[in-house]
Design the sequence.
C-alpha cells in the first residue's frame, strides 16, 4: 500500500489552529495572511461497523450532580517565589498544565530552575526535560543558581511518547519541558516545531500529566510580534498561560498571566534579574515611579489594575512641532488607538492644539497598561508636555475619557486611591461622577472633574 493511501494532507493555521483541505493565502477563521502550513496526518482507519445510536446511549455514563464534585482543586505546591505563586493562584495545582512563553534569553529557564531547586529542597523529585540544551549546559545554570539537589532529574529526550512513559514511571512532583517546540511524536508526520507536532506533543503530555496528577510546565517560543508561537489552540489546551517580558539588556522582568483556570487572570509580577537568578520585587509600585522627575513636564502618575492588584505607573509624553505631514504618533506600553483618540479629543475639545505636533507616549520599565482608566493620565501628560508645565508632584490622575471629553468612572477606584495614599500621593483627579459613591479615602483628596479641561486645570497648576 502506498504512503498516499495512509496519510492525508491538511493545511493548519499557525495562529488559530483552523484546518483547511487546501491552501489559501488567508486563513478563513482568523483572517491572518500567510499562516497556513502543510502537514500530513495518518488517515483514520474506518471501523468495520459503526455502533448504533442506541448502543452508544446504553454505554454512556450517567452524569453526576455538580454538588457532588470536589469543592476544591486540592493542595497547592509552592514554586518558592511568592509572586509566581500569586499569579498561579497559590501555587502549582496537581495535574495542571502551565505554558510559559517569552523571548530568548529573557529568563524562562532561570525561573523554572529556581522553582525546581526549591521543590527539590523540599524533598520532592523534579523531572527537567530539555530538548534545547545539553545536560552540561543545564548543570552550569543550576550551579550558578545554587541548585545542587540530587532530586532534580534531567533528561534530554525529545520524543513526547517517551517523556510521557518516563512521567508514568518516575511520578515526580513536577515535570518541566523546555521547550514544547523541540518535541516530536511519530503520530504527526512533520518536523519538530511545526503546528501539527506542537499540538500533538502538547496533547500527549497534558494527558499524561492529568493521568498521573503531576503538574506540567512547558516553555514556548514567541514570534517577532511577541505572540506565543505555535497554534493558538495550544493556549486553549493549557490551564495557565504565563508570559515573561522585558528588555534583555535591562534587569527588570515582567511576568504576566493572561489566562488562569485556578485564579485571577491578567495579573502581573515584577522580578529583577541578578547574577544568582530572578529576585522578586516586593513593592512594584515604588519601583515603577522611583525614578520619576517631579519637575519635568509631560509626566503623569496613574494607578492601573493588573488583575486584582493596583499598581502605580508613570505615563510619559513628549510633543514637538512636526517636520512631516502627517505628524508622527508613537505609543509604547499603552494602546495606540486610544492614544490617537485622546490626541483628537485634546485638539477638538480642550483647545490643546497638537494636530501639528509629533506625539510620543511611553510607560517606562516595560509595563503594558492598556485599560481605559489611563485615559486621563495620558491626556494630562500630553497636555503637560505641550504647555511645558509639570503636573502637581503629589497628584495621581485616574479616569476614562469619552469622545466628547467627558470623564467616566472606572472600576476599583477605592483600591486605586488606597495604593496612591500608601505611596504618599495626596491628591487624585478622578471623574466627577465617581464622587457620588466614593467613600472618603484617608490621606488622599479626591478632586472631581467632569471633563478633560477641568481635569487639566486641577492637575496642572499653570492651566488653571
Sequence:
Amino acid at each position: 500500500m502506498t504512503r498516499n493511501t495512509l496519510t492525508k494532507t491538511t493545511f493548519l493555521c499557525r495562529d488559530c489552529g483552523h484546518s483547511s483541505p487546501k491552501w489559501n493565502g488567508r486563513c478563513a477563521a482568523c483572517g491572518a495572511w500567510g499562516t497556513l502550513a502543510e502537514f500530513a496526518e495518518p488517515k483514520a482507519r474506518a471501523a468495520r461497523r459503526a455502533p448504533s445510536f442506541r448502543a452508544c446511549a446504553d454505554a454512556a455514563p450517567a452524569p453526576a450532580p455538580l454538588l457532588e464534585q470536589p469543592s476544591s482543586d486540592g493542595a497547592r505546591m509552592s514554586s518558592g517565589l511568592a509572586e509566581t505563586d500569586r499569579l498561579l493562584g497559590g501555587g502549582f495545582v496537581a495535574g495542571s498544565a502551565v505554558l510559559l512563553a517569552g523571548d530568548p534569553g529573557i529568563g524562562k529557564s532561570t525561573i523554572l530552575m529556581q522553582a525546581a531547586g526549591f521543590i527539590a529542597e523540599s524533598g520532592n523529585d523534579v523531572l527537567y526535560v530539555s530538548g534545547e540544551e545539553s545536560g552540561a549546559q543545564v548543570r552550569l545554570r543550576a550551579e550558578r543558581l545554587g541548585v545542587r539537589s540530587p532530586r532534580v532529574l534531567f533528561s534530554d529526550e525529545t520524543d513526547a511518547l517517551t517523556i510521557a512513559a518516563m512521567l508514568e514511571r518516575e511520578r515526580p512532583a513536577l515535570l518541566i519541558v523546555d521547550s514544547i517546540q523541540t518535541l516530536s511524536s511519530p503520530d504527526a508526520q512533520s518536523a519538530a516545531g511545526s503546528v501539527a507536532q506542537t499540538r500533538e506533543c502538547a496533547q500527549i503530555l497534558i494527558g499524561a500529566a492529568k493521568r498521573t496528577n503531576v503538574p506540567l510546565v512547558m516553555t514556548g517560543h514567541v514570534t517577532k510580534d511577541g505572540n506565543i508561537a505555535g497554534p493558538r489552540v495550544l493556549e486553549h489546551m493549557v490551564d495557565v498561560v504565563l508570559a515573561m517580558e522585558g528588555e534583555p539588556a535591562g534587569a527588570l522582568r515582567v511576568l504576566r498571566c493572561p489566562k488562569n483556570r485556578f485564579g485571577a487572570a491578567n495579573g502581573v509580577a515584577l522580578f529583577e534579574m541578578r547574577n544568582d537568578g530572578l529576585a522578586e520585587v516586593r513593592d512594584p509600585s515604588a519601583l515603577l515611579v522611583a525614578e520619576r522627575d517631579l519637575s519635568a513636564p509631560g509626566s503623569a502618575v496613574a494607578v492601573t489594575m493588573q488583575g486584582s492588584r493596583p499598581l502605580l505607573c508613570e505615563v510619559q509624553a513628549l510633543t514637538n512641532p512636526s517636520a512631516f505631514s502627517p505628524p508622527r504618533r508613537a505609543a509604547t506600553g499603552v494602546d495606540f488607538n486610544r492614544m490617537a483618540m485622546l490626541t483628537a479629543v485634546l485638539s477638538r475639545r480642550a483647545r490643546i492644539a497638537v494636530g501639528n505636533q509629533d506625539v510620543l507616549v511611553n510607560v517606562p520599565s516595560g509595563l503594558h497598561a492598556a485599560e481605559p482608566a489611563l485615559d486621563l493620565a495620558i491626556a494630562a501628560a500630553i497636555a503637560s508636555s505641550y504647555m511645558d508645565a509639570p503636573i502637581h508632584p503629589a497628584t495621581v490622575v485616574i479616569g476614562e475619557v469619552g469622545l466628547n471629553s467627558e470623564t467616566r468612572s472606572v472600576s476599583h477606584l477605592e483600591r486605586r486611591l488606597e495604593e496612591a495614599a500608601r505611596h504618599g500621593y495626596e491628591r487624585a483627579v478622578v471623574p466627577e461622577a465617581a464622587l457620588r459613591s466614593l467613600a472618603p479615602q484617608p490621606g488622599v483628596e479626591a478632586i472631581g472633574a467632569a471633563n478633560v479641561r477641568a481635569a487639566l486645570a486641577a492637575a496642572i497648576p499653570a492651566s488653571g
